[in-house]
Write a structure and sequence with these properties.
With about 200 residues, the chain is mainly β. It is built from no helices and 14 strands.
Length: about 200
């Protein structure tokens, strides 16, 4: 500080704080694939959190996971939160399928915006990924136990339907009969289907 026709006093410096008046950016989610197939190669889908405007502050997104798929059984995710560094527009996480041997229906993973630090939720706050099963349906075999021949009037045989592998889906086996014995007059079959 310099002065003319006066003496410089103290303090010679002052600070001015400029307060930001801009709103925090909003965060929207998107996904690279809405459907992936279970496989030993672990196919993946990328979930991206994108800011409405670049921020001078780091933005942390802590998503929640839901849906019918089970974490660490049907899928895994690379990180539990998405960090968007200051000056960046987006960040992401990856969902990978996990292989099993069960025949099952397609399952879903939903990713929803949860807690957001230095940001706010946008309109697209949830995405869904469907995991399609790649396992074949099990085969069914019938057996009558140790009983092959029964006596008319009071004989009985029990038929058992067995699966080649446990299935996550209900299996119904509809029975049909053939041979020289006549239904009703020679035998009855009850029920006509087996539910597993």
């Amino acid at each position: 500080v310099s002065a003319t026709n006066c003496t410089v006093g103290y303090p010679q410096q002052v600070s001015v704080v400029v307060e930001d008046d801009d709103s925090a950016p909003t965060v929207n989610l998107s996904v690279s694939k809405t459907s992936i197939t279970e496989s030993a190669s672990s196919p993946s889908a990328t979930v991206t959190a994108t800011l409405s405007a670049i921020s001078g502050l780091p933005v942390t997104v802590i998503p929640t996971f839901g849906g019918s798929a089970t974490w660490m059984s049907d899928y895994s995710n690379t990180v539990s939160s998405i960090v968007i560094p200051a000056g960046s527009a987006a960040g992401s996480l990856t969902i990978r399928t996990m292989q099993d041997t069960r025949d099952e229906a397609a399952e879903t993973v939903t990713v929803t915006l949860g807690e957001i630090v230095n940001g706010a939720a946008g309109l697209t706050n949830q995405v869904t990924v469907t995991i399609t099963d790649d396992d074949p349906a099990p085969t069914v075999t019938l057996s009558a136990g140790e009983t092959r021949s029964v006596i008319e009037a009071w004989g009985q045989a029990t038929l058992t339907a067995a699966l080649s592998a446990v299935s996550e889906l209900p299996v119904t086996v509809v029975l049909s009969v053939s041979g020289t014995a006549a239904p009703v007059s020679d035998f009855t079959l009850s029920p006509m289907s087996i539910a597993i």
